[in-house]
Design goal:
mainly alpha; three-stranded antiparallel sheet; two-stranded antiparallel ribbon; 69% helix
Amino acid sequence: MSAASGTLTAGVGVAGLVAGVAALDGGHWTAELPWLLPLGGVRLAVDALSGLFMAVAGAVVLAVAVYAAGYGRASRTASWVLPGFGAVLVLVPAAGSVSTFLLLWELMAVGSLVLVLGEHRQRRAVREAGVWYAVLTQLGFVALLAGLALFAALAGGQTFPELRAAAGSLGPVWRGTVFALLAVAFTSKAGIAPLHAWLPRAYTEAPDPVSALMSATMVNLGVYGIIRFGLDLLGGGSPWWWLGLMGAGGVSAVYGILQAAMAPDLKRLLAYSSSENMGLVLIGVGAGGLFAADGDRRLAGLALAAALLHLVNHSAFKGLLFCAAGSVVRATGVRDLDKLGGLRARMPVTAALFAVGALGAVALPPGNGFAGEWLLLQSLIHGLAVPGMATAVVLPLAVAVIALSAGLSAAVFVKAFGVGFFARPRGEAAAGAQESPPAVLAGMGLLALACVGLALFPGELGPALDRVVTVAGAEPTVGGGAGVRLRTFSGALAPLWIAVALTLAALGTAALVRLLARRPRRTGARLWDCGGGAPTARMTYTATSFAEPLQRVFQQVLAPEQDVSVTPVREFAYLEERVRFRHRVPDRIEHRLYRPVLAALSAVGQSARRLATGSIHLYLGYGFFGLVSLLLVLAVGW
């Protein structure tokens, strides 16, 4: 990345961060730019909800700009698209009209596609990822365009105040149709199963700074769209809207973390983890909408605050993890965990920063992901008092989903950190790795500081979250307490004191062990090895072997594929020359849903080629037949 491009990207990040913090502090503003678009102009409007997403996007863009300055390996096109992409990420939450939102949304899609295709000339996998991403993101845009066009037509206006004022007069069928179309578009952008197929491909094959930006900021805007349009502009709706959203979030959380547990590719593992975390966020948003539909706006505020707090935490630790994975790829050229190992000694700073991000991802104290999931569980447990059969069934299932995903997350990141950074190097690339440049470490350091701050002082976000949930139509229930507490109407959480207690317990245990342990005189001797020789890298656990017990437990869900091919010796049929074993765990949704659809479309395309014979007379016949059919339809309709 050039110095000018890096400076511009960092400036965009600072501007977004400052504007977002100002909006969270109570500053609201609007701007009309009629000369930018020929029909409706451009309208920008910023409130507390916009400010939260702008501040998160600006902070991540700033850190990634510093990281990319030392990372290198960026094409000229990507170097100059990155600042524009960062600016669009900041501006999407500031859109104040349908036309402005659609324009910025499409610019975000096109900009991210250009960045994903940054290395398309070198690798075929990049081109395939670009095709998947382009098709699914444009299908999502079609649903978004249809939903917003219908909403604007029914409301008789396209500005957000006009939509908000007219929403109450719309019939339940029209409101439900608008929400369904928008939910498809926004859950696709958030990477929610089964619309997630683009995500593991795009995140894996995109340049590493771009992967961090997409995972830590772009997916957030799908959640923003659901809150803005579903809760704010449409004013909430039927409980079935939110039960469906919770169901989609729960499926995505469990399925995503299971796929992450099986993935040996480090970036693919992190990509599926993003799908899991966005699923947890949608569980919170869906619970907030469900409680609001039942009239409990206070409990709705708690669920929404929990979802948004987890979203902020996810942006911090997932941005850090993708940047750390990029540091590993930069040093080794390898993403396969089975070929890594031993990086803790060769890349100690990257290993420590990856550990900070992994601790946040497993949602255990003192990681920064703990507070959000704790609040989410609190809201769901207290929601059991809400009457209704659907609520009584769904909320305990949601609690079980969160518990299961948290347990699997621990296994996933123990695998990623332990296999990738400890043991012995399992390849020459890992054995020759060197630490990344200072700028790369500085960018990761900024994200690590954010993780530590959010872990120890999540209560500092309490007043801001209260303002955000008020915009979404809920009552504030979370407040700051001396800068260290997150309070709800049922209790308080003090992460700083939890971290202090855990640190003191660890230090006390270590000191006690040292005091009680005897120190015999050391003598050198060869370890008895049963005649096997000294341990080698082949004897250590790989990512695949680590995940094998989980694969057995969830075999019916994952449906692993394996094949054994035996090549006998030509002269002797009973002697084998080579035995080849292939094992893979495919994305079952992609395998069972997308592959048949693609095969059917391919068959239709091949059949349609028979119509293109090259005969001009036949083409004129097609035109004449089409014209006559159209005239008949018009005549009958008239």
